[in-house]
Specification:
Blueprint: H1 2-20, H2 24-46, H3 49-56, E1 58-62, H4 96-100, H5 113-122, E2 127-133, H6 159-170, E3 173-178, H7 194-207, E4 216-219, H8 233-243, E5 248-249, E6 270-271, E7 285-291, E8 293-294, E9 308-309, H9 312-324, E10 328-333, H10 343-359, E11 367-368, E12 377-382, E13 385-390, E14 397-401, E15 407-412, E16 421-424, E17 428-432, E18 443-449
Parallel strand pairs: 1-2, 1-10, 2-3, 3-4, 4-5, 6-7, 7-10
Antiparallel strand pairs: 8-9, 11-12, 12-13, 13-18, 14-17, 15-18, 16-17
Helix pairs in contact: 1-2, 5-6, 5-10, 7-8
Bound molecules: alpha-D-glucopyranose (GLC).
Length: 466
Amino acid sequence: MKSKQSYQNYLIRCIIIMANKKYTVYSIAFAVTFLMGCKEENKKATESPIQIFSNARFGMFIHWDMSSVAGTEISWSRKGSKPLDITGDSAGYVADTAYDNLYKKFNPTNFDATKWVQLAKDAGMKYIVYTTKHHGGFCMWDTKQTDYNIMNTSFHRDVVKELSEACHKAGLMFGLYYSPRDWHQPDYGVGDNKKYVAYMNNELRELLTNYGKVDIIWWDSYGKGNLDSFWRIGETYKLVKGLQPDIIMNNRLAELGYYNKQPAAFVGDWDTPEQTIGNFQNNRHWESCMSIVKTPDGGGWSYRPDGTLRSFDECVHALVSCAVGDGNLLLDVGPNQLGEIPADQSSRLLQMGDWLKKYGASIYGTRGGPYKNGDWGGSTYNGNTVYLHIGKWNTDKLILPALHSKVLKCTNLSNPENVATFEQTDKNLIIHLPVNKQDSVDTIIMLELDGSAANEMKNNNPLEMK
Ligand code: GLC
């Protein structure tokens, strides 16, 4: 901080000296560049953590623990009872004793946190959320609260530590997934549940004290019970905010599994549609979480060699659909028992990264709108620029509601040589592009307006096709 300031003072002195020496033109140019730089700095510094999260738009979810040894769904494949939860779930096909002993065979010698982080970066992802403890209760860090943890495997390395350090080094936001549900811990849900809540809070204290800055906590719901008296949600919330005041969190702390959602003061900072794209929503943040591998049982979060990889089109479509609806995409990978993100998953991510290198401006830092998404696609905007993401044309045109601003320029970003033209009437904005010039996945048309795109929406309501 100090050195940045003295550097700024030094630059100001240079400007004064240049001005005195009558290098007027240079000094003005220099001063303008300098002030613009300061403005950019200040903008970054004033962005709140949730704005930074929302601007990021694309993150990596990682579901990984000793369940990768069996290659069956994380936690859900444990056959036994799931206290306070759905019982006799169809995904339960590994006997309890077998499941609970998987960790003894877990030795992921190829795990390299820096490789995962580098892959996330190359995929254009700006944050990572990692399952420190899933519903099955196995802890992937050096915890003092239970022996059921990674330090008691032959691997004997603190995965949370290595991942957090790699994220910090690479400048990626670091997020903890933590499941308050714990089907393995003997005190879970017993009596007044006080003992379990204390256990859970002790775990959280470790996670939020020993690993530097934690940007995100991604809760995954409680089982049945009262949020206040049984789960003592207020105590946990206070503890978390006390230890990491800038932390942001999703809405699932105030959720009771798949059961009734209680109205609570602890709704968190964003909503979390799962395995589906959220609806247009620009008055509260949201993030769709989606596994890159699909399985018929709705899982595919963790390593599932029996699953099917989503196609590139599906992945791009998911990201674009989130952005035009004003949300984020948290795309999940499931590393294998050796600690590797399987090659097919990582090549899909790299394809996403290549796509984002070309079209990232239409995703990062944008908001959904001013048009409401629909069958045709949707739009994002940033300042005076609108990006139309068009999936379905009306043959060679797209007819949209009119804009108040004048369109100054219209560019087909998908292929600038295939020129798109536009007409503005009182009622409509019409974009023209010959059928054979349209992109098969997503044609991106950039419109530069003579006014702010946000102002096209009255009370923040997006413009809708009639
Ligand atoms: C569900 C599943 C869980 C997964 C999560 C991700 O809550 O129970 O396995 O981790 O979704 O959103």
